């Protein structure tokens, strides 16, 4: 499947924390760690676990820009 | 200002394309390029231009995860 | 690629309207038409055109619920 | 109230799962089930329960498109 | 229609700017002006124009918090 | 840090409710209360507590408009 999201960033899962319904997954993208907040169900479906290769996917309209 | 968004990724602006009301800004984050779709007004306010240091900011709930 | 987004709705493209930087794509999902606002670049990359089979993908945290 | 969100999809609630602060509500839209992640407070306010008619509401800028 | 979005802020439209496909609408909420980026089609459907009473609607998961 | 988000609304924290992984923070913006759903980790990092001055930050593309 190919998706319209402009940002598909390849990395490796470094942390998975499940909550009651929502999980936090951290992915290391070449040294930068990105945090995703997804459903517990998705964690199970994608069999996400530490060390697994994964992509952080972000729609361009969800990215903001900041400067110092 | 410090923001709750979990993802504040430091990089350098490599492209700015303005549309009628919406602009696309591309930021190089250590070799990975992230695309942001923001208002033209924001581009002006932040004086974004190629070569400028900037951050791509993404809320954790806007990050998805994908696997091959 | 398998994605964490809970909503991957199969349908057919019924309209593509490009703007200056942003395009609107309408997908018929079994009789219900869903509108997506994506970048022009994505339309080109995915070769989206009327009649093509496609999926509308939405993260669960981006879905609201309303009642009459 | 009429809303700007382009996608207001009529259906019926088929599942409500409350977590600590966040609930997952599943709505059947003519055979396609859409999952919404909303606050527990919203579930109470809207008196959402299985069998109730409801709408899944999604802003066009939150819809992505994918192809096989 | 009653919506799950936690933030339904009553105000008055103070500016409408249409682009190629995307419009910016500014709403004064008791002295604070909120900017919405919506489709041109929504502006037409809702007959939005300066002076009209309207609500800015935001899902709780789309609100970030910042401190100085 | 200056951010591209068009909406940076100054107010005061009036409620903080932590869940398993996700917290709800309510900020009074000149009489209007805005609810943010953010990670527990952000609440800790920003030392958010009732009475503290804070900003509700929302990207323009996440704001919808409604009329009666």
From TrEMBL, chains A, B, C, D, E, F:
SUPFAM superfamilies documented for this protein: MOP-like
Protein's GO biological process: molybdate ion transport
Top-level taxon of origin: Bacteria
Mop domain boundaries: 2-67
A Pfam family: TOBE
Xref: Gene3D superfamilies: 2.40.50.100
UniProt entry keywords in alphabetical sequence: Molybdenum
Protein's name in the database: Transporter
């Amino acid at each position: 499947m190919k998706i319209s999201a402009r940002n598909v960033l390849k990395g490796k899962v470094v942390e998975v924390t499940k909550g009651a319904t929502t999980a936090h997954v951290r992915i290391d993208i070449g040294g930068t760690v990105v945090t995703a907040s997804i459903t517990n169900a998705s964690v199970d479906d994608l069999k996400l676990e530490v060390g697994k290769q994964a992509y952080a996917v972000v729609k361009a309209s969800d990215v903001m820009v900041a400067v110092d």
